């Protein structure tokens, strides 16, 4: 049985279909590997509730991220293979169209997990498009590293939004910034100045 399975995996005519299945597997595994540690840290740092509730929240977030990434890779690779088969070759637009459809179907619902993933990708896209614009000659090569200016503008904008238009920021970012910039102004004694963030009445 194992020999037959290995022989099937080596057959060229099934390669596209098998790549779709392996992509689903890799999406599920990668999603779990990325989300589980993140959810664990964020839940225990910022969420209240019983241990059972916290573990349930971690499991739900991990499952959602893993499932969505698996579905997306499956959809993307399937559409890519279908377009390539229909046109007889692979062209760059195939990738864009397949990913747009996959993004709409899998990540189109506005929820905390999808929102984080899309924002993560958006920041990388902006950097990537900037570099591409320089490579293609659409904008000149900067004489000095523009990163310090980008860092200044990003931090200036996010703190301005936090201070004056907080509701426009994602809830997890609001929680992080509240902890850093507001909770640091409140204390009653040494216990909640150095040891704990907030004093418990009990």
TrEMBL record:
Name of the gene: Pxmp4
GO cellular component: peroxisomal membrane
Organism: Campylorhamphus procurvoides
Name of the protein in question: PXMP4 protein
Top-level taxonomic group: Eukaryota
InterPro entries for the chain: Pmp4
